[in-house]
Structures are given as C-alpha cells and as structure tokens.
Specification:
Largest sheet: 4 strands, antiparallel
Strand content: 35-45%
Number of domains: 2
Radius of gyration: 34 Å
Mean pLDDT: 80
Number of helices: 6
Length: 232
C-alpha cells in the first residue's frame, strides 16, 4: 500500500516539475537582448580663483573683564587688518601662571589679491603687548562653489556630446533606437599655473604693473558611456 502511495505522488509531481521547467525556458527566451555601444569621452577646464584663503592667529593674555568682550574685540581688530567676513575656527582658553587667561585663536577669511599686499604689516600694527596678530598662511585655492560650477560645466558638456553621439548612432541605425543606459564619471584635478595670452604679458611689461594673480586648477572629467538598444 505504501508503494502505491509513493508512485501516485511521483506521478502527480512530475507534470508540475515539467511545467515549471517549461515556464523558466519561456522566461529566458523572452529576456530582452541588449545591443550595446560603449565609448569614452572627456572634457576639461580651468577652475580659477582670484581670492586667497587667509588664516590669522591671535595670541592674547586677558583678565576676567577683558574676556567678556574678547570675541567682538578680536573680530573688530581683524576687520582693521582687512575688511572681510572673518570666521573664528579655533578658540582655546587656558589660565597661565599669573592667573590671567591665555587665548589662542585662529581666524580665516577669503581676500582678493589686491588686499594682500600690506596684510602682514597691518597684522603687526594691530598687535600690542599681550595681544599679537600673525598671518599664518595665504593660500590660493578655488572655493567649493567655483569647483562645483566647473564640474557642472564639464558634465553639461559631456551630456551634449552624448546626445550628439546618440543622434549620429540612431541616424545610422534607425531601426534600433539607442538610448543612454549608463554614464560613469571619473574626475582628475591637477594644480597648475594657468597660461596667460601673449598679448596680456606684453601689456603687463609695458604698463609696469601686473593685474591680479589668477590661480587655477586643471579639472578633467572622463565619462564611460553605455548606449543600448533593446531587442525582444
């Protein structure tokens, strides 16, 4: 009796297995086939800036009464050094052996090249016994906004190149109708001196004074692009 039950179970399950295999074969046969065209294109530009990041350190010894207005007073003196939007990025306070408070402060801003010529002299003039201002660094480096603007410009250029490639491809293979499947971007930024036109250099020599210094990074974006046409 048990053998009959096993035999009947096998007979019932066999059509189900057969039908499942047939369904899987149908699914595989209807899976779309991709005709791919993969190519690479690049675009480059200069990410330039005419402002420098300036960092000034402040060392001050203050009593309790002076501490209450230390923040605002230091910002006022920083603006005497150079009128700008200063930001205090470090503020360390510790007591010294005489019972006074020792402040160590770092402040930074961005300034145009024209405001840098007497910056160190102004820092010395703002210093006094017990309170010193020192220019720690002046760094020409494009801002995040300038870098993002250049990146958008290059991506827009690559999108235009991709659209032109699609137009040409669909012109030659009108029955395929290619679409953009994937775009992978890679980016390279290289600090380099930006060359100036010969006429500009001649003008500098004759005028006897150079225009504001422009420092630039060379940005290159490369895109690996896959264009596909789906055949069912």
């Amino acid at each position: 009796m048990r053998r009959w039950i096993v035999l009947v179970s096998l007979l019932v399950c066999f059509p189900l297995v057969t039908w499942a295999a047939a369904d899987e074969a149908v699914v595989k046969s209807t899976k779309p086939v991709l005709n791919q065209v993969i190519y690479q294109t690049s675009a480059e530009t200069w990410v330039s800036t005419q402002t420098a990041e300036v960092i000034v350190s402040v060392n001050a010894t203050l009593n309790e009464n002076q501490l209450a207005k230390a923040h605002s007073n230091i910002l006022n003196k920083l603006n005497n050094i150079a009128k700008s939007d200063w930001h205090i990025t470090q503020f360390n306070r510790s007591p010294n052996e005489s019972g006074l408070e020792q402040l160590q402060i770092l402040a930074q801003t961005r300034l145009p090249e024209t405001a840098l010529s007497d910056l160190r002299d102004q820092a010395k003039k703002s210093s006094k016994p017990g309170e010193t201002f020192k220019v720690e660094s002046i760094t020409f480096e494009p801002t995040l906004a300038e870098t993002e603007a250049a990146r958008k410009q290059l991506r827009d250029e690559i999108y235009q190149k991709t659209q032109a490639e699609l137009t040409e491809l669909n012109k030659h293979y009108a029955n395929q109708h290619y679409l953009v499947h994937k775009i992978d971007f890679t980016e390279n930024v290289t600090p380099q001196p930006m060359p100036r036109p010969r006429m500009m250099m001649m003008a500098e020599n004759t005028a006897g004074s150079a225009p504001p210094v422009t420092v630039a990074n060379k940005m290159t974006i490369t895109a690996n692009i896959a264009l596909v046409s789906i055949n069912r």
